[in-house]
Structures are given as C-alpha cells and as structure tokens.
Design brief:
Length: 312
C-alpha cells in the first residue's frame, strides 16, 4: 500500500570488547584509514551517485523523484498519479495572456471556465478509515469527518490541497480591484446566469468564490502564504539589465526560471476520473442540513437539470 514503509532497519550486531563490554565497530574494520583517504572515498561515492542519476534514462530519474516524493511528503493516495516532467522554464513573460489570463481589463467566460476546471470543478476524492488515521487528523463530535454514501463508494470526503489552493487563488483573482465590480453581484450561493450558465449542470451548489467577503480573502492569502513557506522553492530567479531603458535604475527579474514540475494534468485526470473520484453532488449533505431554514443553501437540482440562476 502507498502508506507502507518500503524498507525496515535492524541494528548491526555488536562485538564484545576486551573488558567484556560492547563495541559498535564492525569486526572487519580494524585498520584506521587516513582521514584524507576516507574523505576521498566519500567524495567519489557522491560523485558516482550524481553521475548515475544524471546519465540514467529519463524513466529512471522519474522513478527516483517519485520515490523521493513518497519519502518526503505527507502521505496521499494520489501518489500514484504523481509524475514528473522534464525540467523546463516557466513561461513567465510579464504581459503574456493564456487560458487563465486574458488581456488587462477584460472578463472572459472562457477564462472563468478554465479556472473552474482546475479548482472546485475537479471534484473531491474518497479516503478510507485506515488512511484517515495515517493522515493524523482528528475530528470532534460537533464536527465529524464527512462520510460519503455507500452507493457512491463510501469512505470519507477529501479534496487535494492543490485544488483548494487554486480555488483560493481564483477567489483572489475575482476580488482584485479591477475585477471587483464584475464579480461582486454574485449572490450568496447563486451563480450569476451570464457568467456561470456555461457550466451547464453545475457540480457545486455554491458559487465558485465569495470574492467580496474579507474573511474568505484573508483565509486564502494565509493559506497561500503557508503553502509557499512550506514548499520553500529555492530555485534562483536571475536578473537582467534593461539596456534599452536608460530611465531604469535597477535590474529586472526574469521569472522564467527552470523548474522540474509535477504533471498537473495527470493529477487532475486522476482526481476527476480515478477510482477515488466523487462529485460534490454525490458526496451527500451535512446530516444537520435543513433546506427549509431561512438562508439555507439550496439542494442540488435533479440529475440532468440545470440550476436556476437568479438574483435575490
């Protein structure tokens, strides 16, 4: 299983000393080597390991990185989906546009769809009771972990952190001062017809973000801060001299640095179509949810029907 340790360790046998005590030195290690010889040997071993890694086939390096991932990361059932791409430069041209970033001051349905697909649109996953214990998480009688109905696979509902953080980033995008007026009219729990009708049958009962609510914004900023500090990317970003701009005093950063990235598309595909996948609508409601209470979130529409979008 993915949470099992791959190897075990045993103490080496100890040899008895002359005084009847024990010695931690191996019986065959009786010669004291010169310090320079020891360091030379260690250096050669490290050099050999680096050469083997750099000269090995791409697949071998990928396997090496995946084993390191499992050893150094918090346990996750998604390890099987983690694949590493060949080192490549970020495409960080300052004024570029892409599927998640339109021209300044514009608002595109296509951009909103692209963001939705890599955050809440990815859906949730299910973890088992045994995996829950290994994640070292505890709940309380007032806030128990949510169970997925047996007819939809059972287990406990979870969300990969990457999609939560992308949801936070999308919330901040919508809440920026030049986007604020465009998104602020989204009603609580009700996607706007003009923006989100293109999602068709929605897989979430709430709008993708509370872009204008300060509590959510502060939460998202702090989550991104914690994640960035936790990951601690130490890749050097170089600076360049803008020789054609005599007004510019300082060098300019070039953010298109080289990175070895995980294959995000593979993780997204595993999350949406793998054996652990669960749609939000299939995860089941909070047991205490009462749709008759004023202000309660509405139920999902029947399968195959679109949600009604309106302003309150």
């Amino acid at each position: 299983m993915w949470w099992k340790l791959k190897s075990s360790y045993e103490s080496l046998p100890q040899s008895e000393g002359k005084a009847g005590g024990t010695s931690t030195s191996a019986p065959w290690f009786t010669h004291r080597w010169p310090r320079s010889t020891v360091w030379l040997g260690l250096t050669n071993l490290v050099t050999l390991a680096v050469l083997v890694y750099n000269l090995s086939p791409i697949q071998s390096r990928t396997d090496f990185l995946q084993k390191c991932t499992e050893s150094l990361s918090t346990i996750s059932p998604a390890f099987e989906a983690v694949k590493y791409k060949a080192p490549e430069h970020y495409n960080a041209e300052f004024r570029q546009t892409n599927k998640w970033r339109g021209p300044p001051g514009t608002h595109s349905n296509d951009v909103d769809i692209a963001w939705h697909e890599i955050e809440l649109g990815a859906g949730g996953i299910r973890v088992t009771a045994e995996e829950l214990k290994l994640l070292n998480m505890t709940d309380s009688p007032e806030m128990p972990f949510h169970k997925v109905p047996d007819e939809h696979g059972g287990g406990y509902l979870a969300m990969l952190e990457v999609f939560h953080l992308l949801h936070c980033l999308n919330s901040l995008r919508m809440g920026l001062f030049y986007n604020y007026e465009h998104y602020q009219f989204l009603d609580e729990g009700v996607p706007d017809e003009n923006i989100y009708s293109h999602f068709g049958e929605s897989d979430i009962s709430r709008k993708p973000t509370r872009a204008t609510e300060s509590d959510d914004t502060d939460h998202c900023i702090d989550m991104l801060r914690m994640n960035l500090q936790c990951q601690g990317d130490v890749t050097p970003a170089l600076f360049v001299d803008p020789l054609n701009n005599p007004k510019r005093r300082d060098a300019l950063p070039n953010w298109s640095s080289m990175h070895t990235c995980r294959d995000f598309d593979a993780i997204l595909d595993w999350n949406k179509h793998g054996p652990r996948s669960v749609r939000w609508r299939d995860a089941g409601p909070n047991p205490s949810w009462d749709p008759s209470v004023e202000g309660a979130e509405p139920p999902f529409p029947p399968e195959g029907e679109k949600e009604e979008h309106h302003h309150s």
